[in-house]
Each structure stands twice: as C-alpha cells, then as structure tokens.
C-alpha cells in the first residue's frame, strides 16, 4: 500500500497571487505489510511506482439551460441544467521521479515549485466558476494512473507593472565612495514584480479621496453622503457618513448593502457604468454580502461601516464575465408633517403616527475592490492524502 501526502510549504494559507510561486512537498510512503510478517518470510516487500508528475490546473465551470427535445422533435416546456467544465490552464508537468522502488516503511519526499501565470482569480459565482488545483499524477506498475489534487485559491493582481514603476538605479553617493567592509554583503536586494505590485496596491488603497454625493429625489433633498475613498482591499471596512442637516424631506430609515454584480460577456456594456441601468438589476446577477441598517428618523448625522469579507473575489474582468462591486442604498423618505419637531415642554411625551406615507428611493454607487496580501488571509492547509492499494 502506497500513501501519497501533499502539503503546501505555506502552512497558514493556501492563497496565492498571480505571479507568486507555489511550493509543495510530496511524500511517498510504503505501508505494505506489518513488520512481523516481513521478519517471518525474510523477504522485503517492494512497491514499484513507474512515474509521478505535478502541474497546476485551472478549471472553468459554466451553467447553461437547454430545452429538452422529445423523440418527436417537439420542444417541451421544461428545461434541464447542463453543467460544462473544462480546463483552461495547465502548466508544464514536472517529473518528480521515474521507476521509484520503496521498501516497507520507507518514504521519499520531493519538492515542487511553480509560478502561477497570469489568469483569472478563483471565483464561485452564479453562472460561472473559476478554481485551481495542484495535480499530482502517479502510476503504479501494471495499474492505472491515479490523481491527487490540492486546491489553492488565486487572487488577481489588477495593477500592471509599468517600467517607470520599477526602482531606478541610484546615483553614486559619498557613502558608496567610502571603503567597504569585505565581511558584509553589499549586494542590493532584487525586488520582484509581485512586491512592487503589492506596494503600489497599498498606495492606491491607502489614498484617501473623499467624495461627496447629494442625495435627492423628485420631492426634494434627502441629505449628503461622504465616501472617504473609492478603492478598498479585502478585509477592509467601507466607512461613510450621512449628513441630513441639509435635507428638505425627512429620511425615516436607510439600509446599505455590499453587492457583487456578475455580468456575462454577452451582457457587458463597453460604456462606463450606468447607475440608472444597474439600479434596475437587469445587467447582471446580484449577490448580497454585508449590510448596514439604521432607523434615522431623528438623526442629523450618522455613519455606516461595512466590512469586506476575506473570502470574496475582488473586481476582475475576463472574456466570459465581468465582476463588479457596488453599494446598494435604500432610503425610506416621508413628507408627513406629524414627524416634524413639536414645540412644547421637554418632558411632554410624543406619540408617533400609526400610519405614514413613505417612498423608497434606491441608489447604487460603484466601488472597486482589490486583492490583499495573501499571507493576511488565514486559510490553513493540513495536507491532502491519497492511498494506492
């Protein structure tokens, strides 16, 4: 019996950025017979493996609805769900060994590393899914090929590395003209493109650029909303403030929802995002995440805090799908005079009306969500195992 164990070198997280290197330990162990049986026969039990290879595979799964056609070539009113799955990415396989023989209790460990090419991120949407696995294929002599797959999560790197962003060589300074210490390593550290991209990502998401929006409807002004920045990373909090001091109509309650919009390729519009079109919900399928709800009938100012989960997929676009993020606002307004402040003693109790005329206002605000440093996402990998009997 051969046991194959695969474990990522990065124990605390199986999340990687495009361009990062996946490092993996693959261990082959022979657990054929107990030791007392071998001592009685005085014959070593050898297990022979012909070969083993490792590669990274990317899969795309789509769902389509097709009509069921009967034998009489008549289209029935019901439909069936057809799931199509294909591999769109496969790195060059790397051979771990050829003709490996293991005695009982013997183990061999091999090291594998591969750089993730530019590809779509891991995404589990409504109509389309992208996911990645490290595939370990092996074959015992005289048996069929068996496969062990280790799932990994891939995050996009949406910031393109430009030549002007690379560190420029510094001019000769007085420090370089001084005598150097021969016992110190004076070689400069080589900065990778991934590190440069992470630094640029930090600069973009940390930049505060407050944007103010006047919220109005056909009856008047509801208030003013302030969003401190339009770009965020996974795990950050979306913080905004609402000011009702400039209102002409009263806002009874509000709710803000973080939504992901999945737009298929045949529905993607080349023009900028139209807020009115997105508010109808006809451009793509919507998935709700965190939500903030508040009764603001007597408030002049308030704030909202929406955390971005670490398990969601950042904004990205491919030939098949366009994934966007937005804040979905719902304002419940009223012009009922009984809700206005009452002049009278402070200790006088005020009873609200039983029925009020309200109007719901919907507003969608697009935002951009980027990836984060994968080491900050806790996704432990305990290892995967395959038994060859």
Summarize the structure.
With 389 residues, the chain is mainly beta. The chain has four helices and 21 strands. The model is unreliable at 36-43, 65-82, 161-175 and 268-282 (pLDDT under 50).
Summarize the helices and strands and which ones pair or pack.
Blueprint lengths: L1 E7 L6 E3 L3 E10 L4 H7 L4 E24 L5 E16 L3 E10 L3 E9 L7 E2 L3 E13 L4 E11 L18 H4 L15 H14 L4 E7 L2 E8 L3 E3 L3 E7 L6 E15 L10 H5 L5 E11 L5 E7 L8 E2 L3 E14 L23 E13 L13 E5 L1
Parallel strand pairs: 2-10, 13-20
Antiparallel strand pairs: 1-3, 1-21, 3-7, 4-5, 4-6, 4-9, 8-9, 9-10, 11-12, 12-14, 14-17, 15-16, 15-19, 18-19, 19-20
List keywords for this structure.
389 residues; mainly beta; Immunoglobulin-like; 2 domains; six-stranded mixed beta sheet; 4 helices; 21 strands; 8% helix; Rgp1; CLUMA_CG004325, isoform A
Structural write-up:
With 389 residues, the chain is mainly beta. It is elongated. Strands 2, 4, 5, 6, 8, 9 and 10 form a seven-stranded mixed beta sheet that branches. 21% of the residues are buried. It has two domains: 139 residues, Immunoglobulin-like, CATH 2.60.40; 145 residues, Immunoglobulin-like, CATH 2.60.40.640. It has four helices and 21 strands. The protein starts with a strand and ends with a strand. 8% of the residues lie in helices and 51% in strands. About 14% of the residues have low confidence.
State the low-pLDDT regions, or none.
36-43, 65-82, 161-175, 268-282
Based on the structure, what is the oligomeric state of the protein chains?
single chain
Shape, please? elongated
Would you state the CATH class of the largest domain?
Answer: Mainly Beta
Strand composition percent: over 45%
What's the total helix number?
4
Which second-level CATH architecture of the largest domain applies? Sandwich
Helix percentage: under 10%
InterPro entries: Rgp1
Organism: Clunio marinus
Pfam family, one: Rgp1
Protein name: CLUMA_CG004325, isoform A
């Amino acid at each position: 019996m051969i046991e194959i164990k695969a474990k990522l070198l990065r124990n605390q997280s199986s999340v990687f950025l495009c361009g990062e290197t996946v490092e993996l330990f693959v261990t082959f162990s022979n657990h054929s017979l107990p030791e007392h049986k071998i001592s009685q026969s005085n014959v070593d039990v050898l297990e022979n493996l012909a070969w083993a290879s490792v590669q990274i595979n990317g899969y795309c799964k789509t769902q389509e609805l097709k009509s069921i056609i009967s034998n009489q070539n008549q289209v029935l009113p019901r439909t069936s769900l057809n799931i199509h799955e294909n591999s769109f990415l496969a790195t060059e396989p790397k051979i771990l060994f050829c003709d490996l023989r293991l005695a009982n209790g013997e183990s061999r460990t091999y090291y594998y590393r591969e750089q993730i090419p530019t590809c779509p991120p891991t995404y589990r949407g409504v109509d389309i899914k992208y996911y990645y696995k490290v595939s370990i294929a092996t074959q015992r002599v005289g048996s069929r090929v068996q496969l062990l797959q280790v799932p990994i999560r891939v995050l996009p790197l949406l910031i393109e590395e430009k030549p002007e962003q690379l560190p420029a060589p510094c001019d000769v300074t007085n420090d370089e003209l001084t005598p150097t210490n021969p016992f110190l390593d004076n070689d400069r550290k080589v900065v990778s493109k991934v590190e440069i991209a992470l630094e640029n990502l930090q600069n973009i998401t940390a930049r505060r650029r407050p944007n103010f929006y006047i919220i109005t409807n056909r009856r008047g002004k509801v208030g003013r909303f302030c969003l401190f920045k339009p770009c965020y990373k996974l795990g950050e909090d979306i913080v905004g403030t609402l000011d009702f001091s400039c209102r002409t109509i009263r806002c009874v309650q509000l709710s803000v929802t973080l939504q992901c919009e999945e737009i298929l390729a045949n529905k993607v519009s080349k023009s900028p995002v139209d807020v009115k079109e997105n508010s109808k919900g006809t451009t793509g399928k919507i998935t709700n995440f965190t939500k903030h709800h508040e009764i603001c009938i007597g408030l002049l100012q308030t704030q909202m805090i929406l955390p971005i989960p670490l398990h969601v997929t950042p904004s990205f676009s491919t030939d098949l799908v366009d994934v966007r993020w937005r804040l979905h606002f719902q304002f419940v307004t009223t012009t009922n005079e009984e809700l206005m402040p009452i002049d009278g003693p402070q200790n006088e109790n005020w009873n609200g009306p039983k029925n009020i005329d309200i109007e719901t206002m919907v507003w969608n605000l697009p935002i951009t969500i980027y990836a984060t440093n994968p080491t900050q996402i806790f996704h432990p990998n305990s290892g995967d195992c395959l038994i060859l009997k």
